[in-house]
prephenate dehydrogenase
Amino acid sequence: MIRNVAIIGLGLLGGSIGLAIEEHAPDITTTGFDRNPKTRATAAKRSLVGTVCDTASEAVANADLVILCVPVGAMEEAAAGMREALPKAAIISDVGSSKQSVGEALAKALPDHTIIPAHPVAGTEQSGPDAGFASLFTNRWCILTPSETASTEAVQSVSDFWTKLGANVEVMDAEHHDLVLAVTSHIPHLIAFTIVGTASDLEEVTRSEVIKYSAGGFRDFTRIAASDPVMWRDVFLSNKSAVLEMLGRFSEDLTALQRAIRSGDGDALHELFSRTRAIRRQVIEEGQDDDRPDFGREDH
Amino acid sequence: MIRNVAIIGLGLLGGSIGLAIEEHAPDITTTGFDRNPKTRATAAKRSLVGTVCDTASEAVANADLVILCVPVGAMEEAAAGMREALPKAAIISDVGSSKQSVGEALAKALPDHTIIPAHPVAGTEQSGPDAGFASLFTNRWCILTPSETASTEAVQSVSDFWTKLGANVEVMDAEHHDLVLAVTSHIPHLIAFTIVGTASDLEEVTRSEVIKYSAGGFRDFTRIAASDPVMWRDVFLSNKSAVLEMLGRFSEDLTALQRAIRSGDGDALHELFSRTRAIRRQVIEEGQDDDRPDFGREDH
Ligand SMILES: NC(=O)c1ccc[n+]([C@@H]2O[C@H](COP(=O)([O-])OP(=O)(O)OC[C@H]3O[C@@H](n4cnc5c(N)ncnc54)[C@H](OP(=O)(O)O)[C@@H]3O)[C@@H](O)[C@H]2O)c1
Ligand SMILES: NC(=O)c1ccc[n+]([C@@H]2O[C@H](COP(=O)([O-])OP(=O)(O)OC[C@H]3O[C@@H](n4cnc5c(N)ncnc54)[C@H](OP(=O)(O)O)[C@@H]3O)[C@@H](O)[C@H]2O)c1
């Protein structure tokens, strides 16, 4: 049974976990730490956790579950920094967007602890201590990637925890996670960053034109491309091989489409554009997006 | 002064124009035609226009402005089909997403008429007679691409018309329009169609996984990739050279990022990801998107 949760990193993910616990599992006490004093002050003001501590050691001292909510590249350092203060029985988990490298980093920093890496597939383009909200995980999936030798009870505890916060839980191996998320998250972000960069560097088309006429589709990409630079730098560096693999597939398919456009092959274009519609329907049916046209911008 | 508007093609764009006229300029009478009898029936039921006609000739007989709202590839045929019935003084316009080829097609089909091509940069992923709504053009830009010899009064009339419907109007040459829209609309759609296609064709990752974990970013792309296949086939075929030009730039930039990931160049990644954030802010400041995180999905 998890009674005391320590959250390290009080940004979007850490803050949302704190608020979700307060809403869905108020019997659990929460402590939190962030290296940034301003973030700690905001966290205290917004009551993201029950107690905001001034050191990681203080925050984890009584925890049965510690969740690292820092950028992927900061996991090892954050874990090492609390080693001495960690209760022996505490389970260590995280929310990092890539899982093989994080699993390895945590195992290295905390070789004697039970580590159950996790990734709630939920987020927004905002970050920082003002960005979190209690319903972030509702009806979203949380993927656990325990090593083969991880204790079944620890996996169950972390799974129960996320279920309480409103998420659906899935267990898979870290390598597969990294491949799946390369497709459903990392490549979409990479493409969005790229096209927004391309558009802002053109000579023939001014930046003000790009912005004025962005309602033609481009504006959607600007949202994703506004995501946190540090977080995403770390994701691409830590999930390099799966990202490069999937990027290769994408580039091949893009080249094929380019050829179809060049040769005026309308049937090939129509065939692809018809197939992709079905995926949207399934995304909506599975409750992973709603069916309001244009994301409901019109209703606003 | 425009008193009678005929709308040919009663889908998303045609229907929205009809409804916007009713809301913003109720003194203008509207007639409409669509080649599809079911669409005509729905248009009549939803009162998309004042009178739904059974032929294009009937619809245009008394018009001072005729707006073609059919796929870009159908413009020439639709224009030619109404030639005999067109009043001599009627201005012909359209809403096609590419403008050089449409301008040429309309000039060819109606050599003796005043043609003022237009493109309201507004839309959703939905199409058909049920998709339209009166506020589609509010605060969006409408681009006019008259030829150099077009009458100034006719340009002014069409400009005033779109201003009445709530749009901001800009005039530019068709070639520049096609380059700008390749960046802000056509390439974003092409990329979205491609990545959704890539994701659904993988062997290592199942389609059900792609859908389950789509909240990581992928779901945004599925919305755009659910757009009408015929419309988009026609856009790419009719704006081939600008699309291929911009696709070349995008591919170069993507290759550079790929290299940065491969070589672990975190600074290059961080630098790009920081720059793209500013564009999002400008899109919001310019009123082309709102600032709710995650498109306000959470508020729903
Ligand atoms: N954003 C998403 O959509 C999303 C979704 C799923 C998973 N994730 C994952 O969740 C994690 C956190 O992301 P986020 O969006 O919550 O980022 P965030 O809002 O930027 O929050 C991260 C916080 O961690 C702090 N921090 C950095 N290093 C630290 C350390 N060594 N010790 C203590 N605190 C430290 C940061 O402080 P500074 O301000 O000083 O850097 C910042 O306040 C990342 O691993 C990310 O991959 C994100
Ligand atoms: N959707 C957008 O976001 C957007 C934005 C700006 C501009 N545009 C442009 O607007 C135009 C219309 O797009 P839309 O989204 O409104 O498409 P839509 O909802 O599919 O409507 C087009 C309608 O035109 C009909 N049609 C086709 N050929 C015709 C003909 N020869 N005569 C009469 N009716 C004909 C179609 O009937 P069938 O069902 O029989 O084909 C359909 O009902 C396109 O040129 C597009 O490029 C679209």
Notes: Chain B touches chain A through 110 residues (CB under 8 Å).
